[in-house]
Write a structure and sequence with these properties.
Blueprint: H1 2-15, E1 18-21, E2 27-30, H2 35-52, H3 59-73, H4 78-81, E3 86-90, E4 97-100, E5 104-108, H5 118-133, H6 136-143, H7 147-157, H8 161-168, H9 171-175, H10 183-199, H11 206-217, H12 232-245, H13 247-255
Parallel strand pairs: 3-5
Antiparallel strand pairs: 1-2, 4-5
Cofactor: Zn(2+)
Protein name: M48 family peptidase
Signal peptide: 1-23
C-alpha cells in the first residue's frame, strides 16, 4: 500500500510539470513541485545553512546586506515581493552568496573582499536573486525529478526532514540548491540581475568591476563557486556591453528617487 501511494504521488508530481518562458524569452521546464512546496524547501534549506553557520553578529554588516537586499526586492514583480525576505550573514572567508526560493538570502563575510562598494554588492545579490525570480531552482528540481529524487523531496515535504538530513546530508545536498547553475542559468541570472540592480538605482557598470575584483582575488581565476559561468573575459565584455544599454534604466531610477545609501 505504501509503495502504491508513493508511486501515485510521484506520478502526480511529474504530471504537474510544464513549460514556461523566462523573462529573457528562454523556454523552461518547471513544475516538479508547487511554488508553495518550493518555498518550503528553500526555508528548510536556509534553516540548515544557518544551523551549520557560523553566523556573523556584526550589526553594521548585517544592516548593510539587508539594505541592499531590500532595495533590490522593491523592484521585483509583485509575486516575489509577497514573501518576507530574510537575510543571514555567515562568518566565512569564502567570497560567496546565495538566494533561495521563499525569499532567503545568505552572504559570506568574505564577499566584502571583492564587493567593495554597495553597487558591487548589489551586483552579486541581484545575480543570486535573479536565480530565484527566473525559477532556476524549480528547473533544477524538475530536471532531477527521477523516482529517487521524488522520494527525497516528497519525504522532506511530508515532514521527514530530520531523517532526510541525517541520512543524505540534508536538503542542501539533496536538492543541490547551493550548487552552481548551468551556464545558461548563470548567464540568464547575470542578465536579469544587472537589469534589476539598474532599476533599483545601483550602477550596472559596477558588475564589471566586481567581476574584475573576483578574478584578481583568485589569482587570475574566478572563485570555484563561479566555475560554471561563461569564460571570464567574455562575461566581462557581456556585462560591459549590457551596462551601456542599461544606462537609461539606471538614470530613470535615480531620477525617481531610487538612490540607495547602504554603505
Amino acid at each position: 500500500m505504501k509503495r502504491w501511494i508513493l508511486t501515485a504521488a510521484i506520478v502526480a508530481v511529474l504530471a504537474g510539470c510544464a513549460t514556461t518562458t523566462s523573462s529573457t524569452g528562454r523556454t523552461q521546464y518547471v513544475g516538479g513541485v508547487s511554488q508553495q512546496q518550493l518555498n518550503q524547501l528553500g526555508a528548510q534549506a536556509f534553516v540548515e545553512a544557518k544551523n551549520k553557520g557560523p553566523i556573523s553578529n556584526d550589526a553594521r554588516q548585517n544592516a548593510y546586506v539587508r539594505c541592499v537586499v531590500n532595495a533590490l526586492v522593491r523592484q521585483l514583480p509583485a509575486q516575489n515581493q509577497s514573501v518576507a525576505w530574510e537575510t543571514a550573514l555567515f562568518a566565512n572567508n569564502e567570497p560567496n552568496a546565495f538566494a533561495l526560493p521563499g525569499g532567503k538570502v545568505g552572504v559570506n563575510t568574505g564577499i566584502f573582499t571583492v564587493a567593495k562598494t554597495q553597487d558591487q554588492l548589489a551586483a552579486v545579490l541581484a545575480h543570486e536573486i535573479g536565480h530565484v525570480v527566473e525559477r532556476h531552482h524549480d528547473e533544477r528540481i524538475t530536471r532531477q525529478m527521477g523516482a529517487s529524487g521524488a522520494v527525497q523531496l516528497l519525504g522532506a515535504l511530508a515532514g521527514d526532514y530530520g531523517s532526510l538530513a541525517t541520512q543524505g546530508g540534508g536538503l542542501l545536498a539533496q536538492t543541490g540548491f547551493l550548487l552552481p547553475g548551468s551556464r545558461v542559468q548563470e548567464s540568464e541570472a547575470d542578465q536579469v540581475g544587472q537589469r534589476l540592480m539598474a532599476e533599483a538605482g545601483f550602477d550596472p557598470a559596477q558588475a564589471v568591476n566586481l567581476w574584475q575584483n573576483m578574478i584578481a582575488a583568485g589569482g587570475g581565476r574566478p572563485p570555484e563557486w563561479l566555475s560554471t559561468h561563461p569564460d571570464p573575459q567574455s562575461r566581462i565584455q557581456e556585462l560591459r556591453n549590457r551596462a551601456g544599454s542599461l544606462v537609461p534604466a539606471y538614470q530613470q531610477a535615480r531620477a525617481a528617487g531610487r538612490t540607495p545609501k547602504c554603505g
